[in-house]
Each structure stands twice: as structure tokens, then as C-alpha cells.
Amino acid sequence: MTASAADLPLGVTHDHFAVAARRIRDLLPLYRDVLGGTFYLGGDNPRVGYRAVQLEFLGGGKVELMEPLPGSTFLDSFFRSHPRGGVHHVTLTVPEDLEIVQVAAALERSGYRVHGLSTADPDWHEVFLHPRQAHGVLVQLARRRSSAYGRITDYTLDDVLAGSAPSCCGVPSP
Predict the structure, then answer these.
(1) Which end of the chain is less crowded, N or C, counting CB atoms within 10 A of the terminal residue's CB?
(2) For the chain, how big is the Rg over CA atoms in Å?
(3) What's the whole-model pTM score?
(4) H/E element holding 103?
(5) Which CATH number does the domain housing residue 115 bear?
(6) Which domain holds residue 144?
């Protein structure tokens, strides 16, 4: 594949699935304590309105646990459909040599309507397929610069939940 055109199939790699709840702490007993996930990274996205932590599992799989930040409406419609929370999205990464704009164009040529195209972060470009387009699943397709992402070890899960990790807004999780 080249950076100028996206041929199908895209050759994606599974990155993670995300579970949203009103409190990340309610998800930890299962995903950390029972299933054995260990802290990988985490932080806040104040622009969108959520806090997330990723746990990794033996063999390399990851789950992202999400909760709304105080005053955020980002997850409101999700919670109307899923009052107790649940799987929010699945993230698949495309090869690094593909531009996400080309991925979006290839999807649209195949009859899929995409939304949320974002290239603002130079290390993480993304586009989404709405659940109506993907049999009930919000699919995030992302292109990341591999050199920009890796395990962050200078803060802990407790730091994220306390709101004191480097990318957090200072407000503790409920």
C-alpha cells in the first residue's frame, strides 16, 4: 500500500476495544482483578470530555476503560442506550504508510459513510464508522506513528484516577 491511495482490504491490526461506564473504578474488578489486565497508559481528553485508561493483557491485547469527565455530555447518548455502560468502540489501526484521509476515501468508495475524521494530532489520525454502518459497533480506524506511542511508565493507574497524571485535568475520578 502507498500513502497516496488506499486499496482494499486495508490490512488493519486490532488495537483495543473500549468499555464505557460512569466510573472506571466500577470496571476494574473485572478487567484488572479477575482478567489480569495491567496498567498500560491513561489520561484525560478534556476537549471531548472523557478519562480513559488502557489495560494490557498477556499476548498483547488491550482494553480501554472510559468514564465521562465532570460536566461532559460526550457519553450521554451512549448511556441513554446503555444505562450501565458497555462496549463503546473497537479500534483498528491501519498501516503507518496510509494517510487516514485516503482510508476514509476508500471506505466511502465502498459505500460506507465515515465521520469524525481528525488529523489534528500529528501522531494519531482517526476516522469512525457509525454503528449504523457497522452492524451496531462504533469502529474507529486510526493511523498512528509507531515511534510516538509506547508504554508510559512515569505515572500509575492511581495517578490517572486521582486526576494527577501528566495528561489529566486535576479532577479525581468518582
Answers:
(1) C
(2) 16
(3) 0.91
(4) helix 100-109
(5) 3.10.180.10
(6) 13-161
